[in-house]
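A quick aside before the break. I want you to see a complete sequence-to-structure record at least once, exactly as it would be stored in a machine-readable document. Don't worry about memorizing anything.
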Amino acid sequence: MPLLPLWLIYPATLSLWDKTSGTWINLITVLLGSLLGLLLQDALPRRMQRIITQGLGLLTTFLGVTMAESLLKVPAAHIDGIILGLIAIVVGGVLGEWWQIETHLRTLGNWLQHRVKGGGNFTEGFVAASLLFCVGPMTILGSLNNGLAGNNTVLSIKSAMDGFAAIALSSSYGIGVAFSSAIVLLYQGGLSLAAGFFAQSLPDPATAPPILLTSGVGGLMIIGLGLNLLEVAQLSIASFLPALIFAPLLYALLQQFT
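That is the input. The structure line, written in tokens, reads:
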């Protein structure tokens, strides 16, 4: 089965498992990675846990940069893709702060921490892992491919990457990373199930300008997450989440007036 099949011949007979198999694989790898990381947490000294997190931070920052380059590929009339990305990230960030998304996500993490009696870094691990596992082009393209054609290849690759990342994060932050699997299930699984709605509007998601713009904005968020992991800064990454929705809406609005 090709990686990006013809979207217009969407098979209507796909079962629920066919549409969401990649998400369940991802869920398992995150949980297994978190379990292994927790085992290593007791075996590794603090300085080694820190260097593992720094390594993940460097790779996360690099991944964010490669994703952000998608902004250079957005054809949008007389407005450069970088400018569109700037508008999306700023407006999305303002909306996120207004809606206090970061605060609500941390409140959820603190509630889970209290329920399971997790360690002091529970919330930080839950928030960082949820953002890392759910923001990115592989999540979007993989979920669309899985939901439309039953092909879980992209999500399977993402699952392996997330599993290794879960080892690094949980060895430093603890069990909160494992609970991010619930966010993966809801967000990624929901996107796979909703993929049918995009079948006609996105004939080729790999080159569709709204997807490129969304991936670029997501890349900026991933760079910020990498900086947080490296302890270079403490950015409110969750506050920028509305930008992922606002970005394609901004592009569609611009197309109506050009």
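Two observations worth writing down. Residues 17-256 form one domain. The mean pLDDT is 84. We'll return to this after the break.
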